[in-house]
Each structure stands twice: as structure tokens, then as C-alpha cells.
Amino acid sequence: MVDFACSLKKAIDHGSIDVVMTTDASLLGWGASKGQTSVGRQWSEEDIVYSWLRKREEDSIILIQN
User: Fold this and answer.
1) 22 bridge partner residues
2) Rounded Cα–Cα distance for residues 66 and 55 (Å)
3) Are strands 21-25 and 29-34 parallel, antiparallel or unpaired?
4) What distances in angstroms separate CA 38 from CA 8, 24, 60, 61, one per listed residue?
5) HSE-up of residue 30 (Cα within 13 Å, Cβ side)
6) Where are the beta strands (DSSP E) in the chain?
7) What pLDDT, on the 0 to 100 scale, is given for residue 40?
8) Which of 27, 48, 29, 49 is nearest to 39 (CA)?
9) Tens digits of per-residue pLDDT, 2-61?
10) Contact 29, 43 (CB under 8 A)
11) For the whole model, what pTM was predicted?
12) The predicted structure's pLDDT at residue 32
């Protein structure tokens, strides 16, 4: 069965790449770049509080669904 499934795989072709963008985030901040342009900053206190509240909300939803 595995051999049959492997024979069905088909490469996905999205054409040529026009734009390359990279992003990254950590506990300290976030950043993104495209070509020679980049942006990023440290998380503000407001960002941290919002993130904490949102995580608690997501945890509550998961607990209710289980």
C-alpha cells in the first residue's frame, strides 16, 4: 500500500518566485524583511499583556471543548 501511495505523489508547481519575505518572532520581539527592506521591534508591555490574555482565552476554549 505504501508503494502505491508513493507512486501517486505529484510535485506542486507554483511557477517562478517573484517575492521572498522572511519573518521571525521570539519572546523579545519580532521582525520581517523583504529584499532590502526590513522592520521589527521589541514587544511592548501592551503586546505582552494582550498576548497573555489571548493565550488564556485560547486555553479556556480548549478546556470547554474537551
Assistant:
1) 33
2) 17
3) antiparallel
4) 41, 11, 36, 35
5) 7
6) 21-25, 29-34, 37-42
7) 96
8) 29
9) 566 566 677 777 788 888 999 999 989 999 999 999 999 999 999 988 888 888 888 888
10) yes
11) 0.52
12) 95
